[in-house]
Fold this sequence. Notes:
Elements: E1 2-3, E2 8-13, H1 17-28, E3 33-39, H2 42-52, E4 56-60, H3 67-78, E5 84-88, H4 94-98, E6 106-109, H5 117-133
Parallel strand pairs: 2-3, 2-4, 4-5, 5-6
Antiparallel strand pairs: 1-3
Helix pairs in contact: 2-3
Amino acid sequence: MHLKILGMKVLIIDSSIEIIERLQQALCETEEVVAAYGAVAYKDGFAFFRDVKPALVLLDSGLPGGESVRLLQDIKKMNRKTPVAIMHSGTGGEWQQENDFSVADLFFDKYHDFEKLPGVVKVIAAEMKEVTSDGVL
């Protein structure tokens, strides 16, 4: 886990420790991220989500045993306002057609769209500031 003094919490759930570590490093280099937690499976991912209440979830579309879809659905049942970005490694829409990720908020290729992630975090952080300054949460 990487920590900073100010910012938002992000939860990364991916079956690859290397991907988690790479994303943690990139996210914690941004001003907006306080902590980037990582989990490799449903059980730990859901426990982190419940306990940490992250502002953003990055979820691997290819967790073993169809856990990605179940975890996405359970996260949205617990808090539908938390943005969930599905990280896929396929090209085109084949990966999405195999599973139901319709309740996800964002989609990106975890190998080719990696550089877009800090921008996404900045937008979400700005939206959070706007909502909290209005007193609406």
